Amino acid sequence: MPIKRSYADHGDACATAHAMELLGDRWTYPIVRELMLAPKRFSELAEGVRGITPATLTTRLRDLESAGLVERVELPAPARATAYEASPWARELAPIFEALGRWAQASPTRAVDGCGLTPDAMVQSMMTMAPEHGPEQPLELELRLRDDREPNAPAYTYRLLWEQRLQITRGQAPGAEVLEGDSSTLAGVLYEGVPVEELRVHGDEVRRLVAAFAG
To answer: Which whole-number Å values give the CA distances from 186 to 35, 118, 140, 197, in the listed order?
Structure first.
């Protein structure tokens, strides 16, 4: 197997070139994206990173650990299992990933027909594409999202809080109204005008969320 040379091996000291080396593999971003909000077990990653084989996922996780982008953690009881999470250094990439996502909207070769989004990808997409001017009054919701493309995939719960800017974190929002459904369907509701009735909605605050994205 040929030795993989870096830009630095060719005398290029550019830090941005090094960054692109770290992130340029096709599997790097989907793996890191799925770990940005909370740790996940190997099986969850295998379901969330579509198309990746277990062998490739094992190799990429090892490489990302070596690069300092992913860390291995032990989940507390009752799970008591090994999991992976984005390192603090990797989480600094969040605003960069958001900027890249907005930039890629103009790509002439981006194909989305027949595609969807995992729950974690969807909520990160929402934070990326949220309008600069949100609802007039603060908005809080609990999102319960699943990926209907994967029948055995777990559902995830998020707290959405939109004040000065939209923030979505893993966890419950006690007392808040609830939006429940498939993450790709939510993408259709917010970005493509799919009727909100395609989701399970508890209360009117969800309509304020849809209206805010509609501008």
So the answer is: 21, 11, 16, 10
